[in-house]
Amino acid sequence: MSKILSYCNNNLLAVCPQGGNTGVCGGATPVFDEIIVSTEWLNSVIHLDETSGVLVCEAGCVLENLHNYLNDYDLMMPIDLGAKGSCQIGGNTSTNAGGIRLYRYGNLHGNILGLEAVKADGEIIDCMNTLKKDNTGFHLKHIFIGSEGCLGIVTKVAIQCHPKPKSIQLAFLGAQNFTKALKAFKTAKQELGEIISAVEVMDHETIKFMWEHTDTTSPIGDYPIYLIIETSGSNEEHDQDKLNKYFQKCMDKHFVLNGVVTSSPSKSEQIWGLRERVAENFYKDGYVFAYDISLPLENYYDIVTEMKEYLGEKSHRVFGFGHLGDGNLHIQISVQKFSTDIMNYIEQHLYKRVNELNGSISAEHGIGFLKKQYLPLVKSEANMNLMRSLKRVMDPNGILNPYKVV
């Protein structure tokens, strides 16, 4: 990697880093004549410290393969994504990927203890620390986490892994509206606290979409809003008791209208399938514009209702699902066919409203090529100038992933 980038930099050849090709913002897609540099063959596990749970591996390791490797040691990765069968840990690092269990384990800025990256000129930056605490100088690893390959290409990571839970419980709940669902979530934080590992939300239109395109549907009937609450712990009897009491409390207070609680792996897999298989079926619903935003919880679902009203008959379907636990909403807008006019009509209004609500136009997918023009809308001129200055320092010839982010 060092020799490739050194050669490209000396000859002013643009480079597009590429991992598992699961990104949705064009961050790993060449725009013109860039040379694609794939990390696919950087796929070795280097070391696992079973006591500390720190895994050191190369950037091209597929996330699901790492999960399977750690399973033999009763450990697990801190992130779990729908694209885990294809995405690579280097790409996850470069986009600061989130996923369904960020609520429990945090993002990669907190879980990556160290990394190795190659700068545009071929210089290798070794930040391969495996310690939980190290306050020696600037924390350079954070420059590369989430910078989408624009400041350097990640080649190795040291990541903090976690003990695999002995008990996993799942609740699938139906609520009358989002306000009630939010009360159920607040109650979950109070009643289930230390064992919550995921809190997901889906609207009725999402379930309807899945029924139309996959013949799978809600196991509890039709409701306007659905919650998936997962708990992970070390004592099954204790966790079951807590989740059942929580469910009953939500029913008594009318926060939810119906629900099912299970510890069965097969039933849990069916429920998670409703949530995780949504994206892979987008192509069956016309052309789907998929947006990844964060909003304050009090405004979380309002944007879905607002976009339905704003688009009217211009859209075939507007639906929302996401990671309620961390405020990340995935809002989808399907139309009969793509046009630049409808894209601009959607995005200019959506991103303006997200900014007005003090949200983020990219919660976990990055900026890439597709959102670059909107970044100045949500970042101040001082912030943009500092990012551009950092880019010039790290990559003065501008060969790394050009036309992306800034």
From TrEMBL:
Per the entry, which co-factors are needed?
Answer: FAD
* Catalytic activity, as annotated: (R)-malate + A = oxaloacetate + AH2
What does UniProt give as GO cellular component? peroxisome
Q: What is its EC number?
A: 1.1.99.39
Q: Which Pfam families match?
A: FAD-oxidase_C, FAD_binding_4
Q: Where is the FAD-binding PCMH-type domain?
A: 1-164
Its top-level enzyme class, in one word, is oxidoreductase
Q: Name one GO molecular function term.
A: (R)-2-hydroxyglutarate dehydrogenase activity
Arranged from A to Z, the UniProt key words for this protein are: FAD, Flavoprotein, Oxidoreductase, Peroxisome
Family membership noted in the UniProt record:
Belongs to the FAD-binding oxidoreductase/transferase type 4 family.
Q: What does this protein do?
A: Catalyzes the oxidation of D-2-hydroxyglutarate (D-2-HG) to alpha-ketoglutarate. Also catalyzes the oxidation of other D-2-hydroxyacids, such as D-malate (D-MAL) and D-lactate (D-LAC). Exhibits high activities towards D-2-HG and D-MAL but a very weak activity towards D-LAC.
- Oligomeric state and partners? Homodimer.
Which PANTHER family does its entry note?
D-2-HYDROXYGLUTARATE DEHYDROGENASE, MITOCHONDRIAL (PTHR43716:SF1)
The protein in question is named D-2-hydroxyglutarate dehydrogenase, mitochondrial
Tell me the organism: Cryptolaemus montrouzieri
Q: What is the lineage of its organism?
A: Eukaryota, Metazoa, Ecdysozoa, Arthropoda, Hexapoda
